[in-house]
Amino acid sequence: MTPRGETRLWILQRASAAVLALCVAVHLGTMIYAVRGGLSAAEILSRTKGNLAWLAFYSLFVLAVAVHVPIGLRSVLAEWLAWRGRSRDAVLAAFAMALALLGMRAVFGVFR
């Protein structure tokens, strides 16, 4: 990959980390608030069902994970296993798609 491409991945990694930090904080804060308020899992799910704001929030969360994790694994695979090249990038692209698809399946499962 070109230095420009590596720089783009670096920027995407950092930007997705910032989004993830915000999403994790909101998610944990909401869960702590809900549980301390005495809500059960069924009550929490009933409140998320059909809520477009939560759909958008968790969709962004899934997208950030699908971007962040494969880029991080790319570096780990290069350093630990010396796996470089197109085969590694193809496997990680497939992994990113799987994360996105499975994550969105979970999001829509909670939304519906």
Structure commentary:
The protein is built from four helices and no strands. The chain has 112 residues and is mainly alpha-helical. The model has no long low-confidence stretch (mean pLDDT 94).
- Name the average pLDDT: 94
First-to-last CA distance: 41 Å
Q: Label the overall shape.
A: elongated
The oligomeric status of these chains comes to single chain
What composes the largest sheet?
none
Radius of gyration: 17 Å
Secondary-structure element string = HHHH
- Helix count equals 4
Q: Report strand %.
A: under 5%
Query: Can you give the helix content as a percent range?
Result: over 70%
Helix/strand class: mainly alpha
What's the gist of this structure?
With about 110 residues, this protein is mainly alpha-helical. The chain has helices at about 5-35, 40-50, 50-80, 85-110. About 90% of the residues lie in helices and about 0% in strands.
Please describe the topology of this protein.
Elements: H1 3-36, H2 41-48, H3 52-81, H4 86-111
Q: Keywords, please?
A:
112 residues; mainly alpha; 4 helices; 0% strand
